[in-house]
Amino acid sequence: MNEQLIVDYKNFLNNGKTERECVEQIIKMAGKKGYKDISKFKKLSPGDKVYITKMNKAVALFEIGFEPIEKGMNILCAHIDSPRLDAKQNPLYEKDCITYMNTHYYGGIKKYQWTTIPLAIHGVVVKKDGKTVNVVIGENNDEPVFCISDILPHLAQDQMKEKASDFIKGEDLDVIMGSVSPANTENLTKEEKKELKEKSKKTVLALLKEMYGIEEKDFESAELEIVPAGKARDMGLDRSMILGYGQDDRSCAYSSVAAMLEMHAGKRTTCCLCVDKEEIGSVGATGMASNLLENMTAEIIALTEANYSELTLRRCLSNSYMLSSDVNAAYDPMNAGLYDKENASLLGGGVTFQKYTGSRGKSGASDANPEFIAKVRAAMYDSNVTYQMAELGKVDQGGGGTIAYHAAKYGMNVLDGGVAVLSMHAPWEITSKEDISQMYECCKAFLGLN
Ligand code: MN
Ligand code: MN
Fold it and tell me: What is the CATH number of the domain that holds 350?
């Protein structure tokens, strides 16, 4: 077990609860290992380390290899967005002396899991003058946290009869931001009554102004994410596991980045790409369905080659290998019937490779080639990496997609791999420390593929 890796991983989770915070951390880590922004280079030569960011929400690290780049790259790819609640653009309202923040959830969640737990707010507010205000509140012990209330059991007899998917409505996932005591308005003048109207909301807005210098209108150009408050912790008496928010897919992203920073490119150029928007279908300019990877690779080729050519770009991508790393649903003994145990990933069983993802007839899968899987198997064997071949749940039970097929469209060999997670997409997800260690070793071995 790589103890230091686990400590660093937990810190990464604690300081990276949004894609922006992850990008910031990755750049900082890469900077310490000699990586520089692409704008600093006029030409790239073997051994050069460079990063490219996109909108502060996606980032790629490259280390240039000795071989011509058209021979392809070894790419580690993971996503750094996680399920959460996003503040709406007109979020604040007051109802009977309590102020709420209206949200729209992001990614696939079981809505009832997000009530009655401490929540923190992370994100940015961009003011009209273009100035960005960073917001993080609810993480330090002396800071307040936020919460979504739920009905007490005593009055929940109707709620408890409803379907779990319905009894907490998406529209009702509103976060309590503040409260005031209801005033006795009987003897007040009209003016005084007016003054009391929306008193709680006014107080919240005044505090936001004082703390961050933001006005209510500034929420229009804000990206505020409501996430579980608190740190990733060791879990179990034997401390064999980690309980933490956002391990889908930051467990893979962190392992990939750490491996990239530790390894040196040999023949092949290496790349570690951390993308956004996977949880909502990889759409958007920072998601894998965009031309992000293609554009970034084109920029690299423009600096490594004497003459830029589109054919070089196409050959480079087509000859590349990618480990599309994302988490897999760990076999859950409490719900054994949902899994084909022989083809499920076991917590602590090492890296999980998936030949295909998708659901109900492999729909949406890129389906890796056995020739390529054999190559990866051999590399894992040579590096003593423990791995398991698995799929997500029983054939007709459901399933999930990853970013693999977006990369496969360039003609490259892609294999899905990752870490098994219990209670995936819950506010607090469970992983095994052993799997994180193995994932890191797997990523290092993958970068060394020839
Ligand atoms: Mn994922
Ligand atoms: Mn996910």
Answer: 3.40.630.10
